[in-house]
Design a protein that fits this description.
16 helices, elongated, alpha/beta, 9% strand
Amino acid sequence: MNRFTAWNETIPPFDADAADRAKARWDGIAKPLNGLGMLETAVIQIAGVTGSERVSIAKRAVAVLCADNGIVEEGVTQTDASVTAEMAGRIASHRSSVSLMAKTAHADVFAADFGMLTPAKGVWDYAVSSGTANMTKGPAMTEQQALRAIENGVALADRLCEKGYRILVTGEMGIGNTSTSSAVASVLLGLPIDAVTGRGAGLSDAGLNRKRDAIRRAIEVNQPDPCDAFDVLRKVGGFDLAGLAGLYIGAAKNRVPILIDGLPSSVAALVAARLVPNARIAMFASHCSAEPVAKAILDALELSPLLYANLKLGEGTGAVCMLPLLDMALAVYDGSVTFRETGISQYVPQEGDPR
């Protein structure tokens, strides 16, 4: 039994009975059936993940995994790798975009170093190495490094769940990680490089061409096996992607829902689902990133996002936006009067109504 099979078997199954009880609660509330649409579905799914219709996500954490990528040497980004440590420090000191948004959403933010070139103050140390190798010249990671990064992601999830967090939000910070994400997505989904590669943090036409060319060379040099997600991850991925894959596995193992953010987070979710299929149970799509391959990844995961807002900042900012929506849904779920309490006849499904 390999490590991934072992993790898969530790993940509790989706609790259909708890989900049914949550749906019955929604249907009993004095309002039209499925009136809150995907918000109702999300609460029902959370009940199935946690095993209880008494849904509570009051204590929530944003985990921002930070790492550097050797492919930056190929001129695929607008800024150099020093920005990773700078921004990681800002996240740790609660001065970044995600920190400010998370404060509004009553979420705690933690930055974790999974492989930065330069450590930053206040960032939790889960580093495997000081950045990945340049994947245009060979594998980004060794097998041992990639596995350790995944294991560290599982350990980070365990740590947060042990602290009592009942929902996790994924985030990342790493210059060059839309290049690694696009490479992994291209191979796993069998899509052309040009179709999956966007401008990231704002590349010019020339920069976009360099990025696509570097990804093409990386895939040609490494020949990753599209049927082996671990092989793809270690050859053309990054430490942040590996750590995030572990975070998804760990969340599912602990029966805690986890929100997918933008492109790197969604690519990592796809890797996790390929390696440990049961990890898919705990995943929720917050939004559809502006990156060109974002929808194809969510379709492959069979997930529908709540938001379409052309978001592309990263750090977990898109996923954090889902928390207030869930809070409003739960306010209705927990506080509304029922048909029984009002004496009004309960709505029932009508023939031809897709609800």
